[in-house]
Structure formats: C-alpha cells, structure tokens
Amino acid sequence: xxxxxxxxxxxxxxxxxxxxxxxxxxxxxxxxxxxxxxxxxxxxxxxxxxxxxxxxxxxxxxxxxxxxxxxxxxxxxxxxxxxxxxxxxxxxxxxxxxxxxxxxxxxxxxxxxxxxxxxxxxxxxxxxxxxxxxxxxxxxxxxxxxxxxxxxxxxxxxxxxxxxxxxxxxxxxxxxxxxxxxxxxxxxxxxxxxxxxxxxxxxxxxxxxxxxxxxxxxxxxxxxxxxxxxxxxxxxxxxxxxxxxxxxxxxxxxxxxxxxxxxxxxxxxxxxxxxxxxxxxxxxxxxxxxxxxxxxxxxxxxxxxxxxxxxxxxxxxxxxxxxxxxxxxxxxxxxxxxxxxxxxxxxxxxxxxx
Length: 354
Ligand SMILES: Cc1ncc(COP(=O)(O)O)c(C=O)c1O
What we know:
Bound molecules: pyridoxal-5'-phosphate
Distance between the termini: 35 Å
Number of helices: 11
C-alpha cells in the first residue's frame, strides 16, 4: 500500500486496479440535496435500502463500511480471535493477509496457480483446511488475476468450510466487472458466507468510501457494534452522495462496460504481440497478471518507470515476483500509450539480455 500511495504515480499509470474516477460534476447533485449531519446510526436508512436493492438481500443482513477495506477488516475481526486459523488464497490482495495478521490469527494459505489460470480449486482448499480453521478467504473476481470462480466452485468451497466448522469470506469488489458473466453473489449461497464489496473498483467511486458487508443478521449486528470502535458516526455527506450514485449506477455501468471492452481489445492485441508475457485472455475484469517469461520483473518495473514514465504493480506485492499486474480501467488513449511503452521496456530488456 505505501508503494501504491507513494510510488505508483506516473504519466502512464497501469498500476491502478479500478476504473478511472467518476467526477462530482458527472452526478446529478444539487447543493440542497447535501447536508453535513443526519440520522445515521446503525446505517442511514435510504442508503441501507439502496444497498439492499443493489445486493438483493434484506437490509438487516447489510453492514455499511468505510470501503471494502473496512468491510474486510470487520469481517475478519468479527469471525477470528487471536490464535484462530484463517485459510487465505495465494496470491491475494496483500491487505487481507495484513489485516488477519493484525488480528493475531494464524495464517494458512492455499494456492491458486498460474498454470490453472489462477482458478479457485476446492481440492486445494480441502488439502489445507484444518479443524482449527474458522474462516476461508477468497476474492472473486480474483485480485490480481481477474479469474472468475463460478457458483458451483464457490459452493464447493463453502461446503468444505462448513464441514470444518468454518465460514467463507468472499471479497467481491471486482465481481461486477464480469457483467453478464458474473455469477450470483456468494451472499445467496448460505449463512456460512460473508461477502464484502464497495463502489470503489468497478464504478470509479472510490472517494465515497461506500463499502458493505453481507452476513447473517446475528453476525451483522456484531459487526455494527465492532464498527463503533472505528467511527460511531459515518460521514453523512458521503452517505447522501452514495444514495445519489446508486440512482445513477446503471448509467455508470454502461459507460464502464464500453470503456473496458475497448481497453480489453487493446490489451489483448498487446499480449498477442508479446511472446515474453504469459497471461490468459479473459473476457472481463479490470486487471491482468502476466508472467514475465524471462528477466526480472523488478528490473522491468524500474526501467518502465525511469525511462518510460509508466508504472505497473510488481508481483512481489502479491508474493509472486515473476508476475506483474496491469490495470485497464483508465482512459483508452493513455492505456494504449502505456502498453506501447511497456512493450518498449520489454524490448530494451530483451536486447540487454541477448
Ligand atoms: C480485493 C480488494 N479488496 C479491497 C480493496 C479495497 O477496496 P476499497 O477501496 O473499497 O476499500 C481492494 C483495493 O485494491 C482490493 O483489491
């Protein structure tokens, strides 16, 4: 995260995982619709209703949270005591592991492999789960690869967890980027599932910090209480803006979809032109995680930044140093130029090696 905040900025930024930020002026906002404080206790009712409609679950199962970041922390903290075991996919979003470590959980990992296209494999979960495991954690779509786990697979993982007396947390912050390929949310698969998400990645509304957790009502109440530790009163202006944004979500979704389709075609053309990169061509998602077939990813990323003013995320931040992550959620022209520069940096490396 310090790298993302301090060092990922460049003229051509391929390091961002979400779509480009939506602007305040692009939403139908009138000053008189905004207020600083309001009736916001365990949820602001209009926002709880909007979240319930968006997620297709009753409002009593939804806990509003400050982004998926806080949603993940609350979900982990409400289900794990120090010393409990949590089984987390590898590779994953670094801060999920960091949050579990902060809580004092014992961390086990199960692999999602490059060779399988980072598929979620229930057999790998079964091999690593133990009688002490209280929670299994996955991302769907997968960060960093965008691999999609279908409902049958997620259910199978749920069944393995349930038999071991554990729950499953599914971080679905990228799921809507699968559009019509997206399975139902895991929130519909039983009370042993906990789902986290936000308007951050797919809708470009990161600054609203509109995140949520879906959990069975008893657990949801425990999370609301725990959230009192971090901020008993939410930022009400952000809640009001979030309600307005939900009213615009279909329009935003259409715009995002068109942009991602354009950018994905650009990305696939680029990948097709590079024998030194290995990545599946997925029809969805905002990120891709190629393997560099020869040479050092750290060197590539340094060269890319120093000579070409372009950034991508080194795979070491996902505990996979042979890979790097490219985001395709930006504007089409800078993405095209960023990929051209990435190609030039790869060519430079190839030349230096031969
Ligand atoms: C898998 C995953 N979960 C959560 C987050 C954080 O989301 P938010 O900005 O909504 O807090 C990220 C951000 O990169 C992420 O990749």
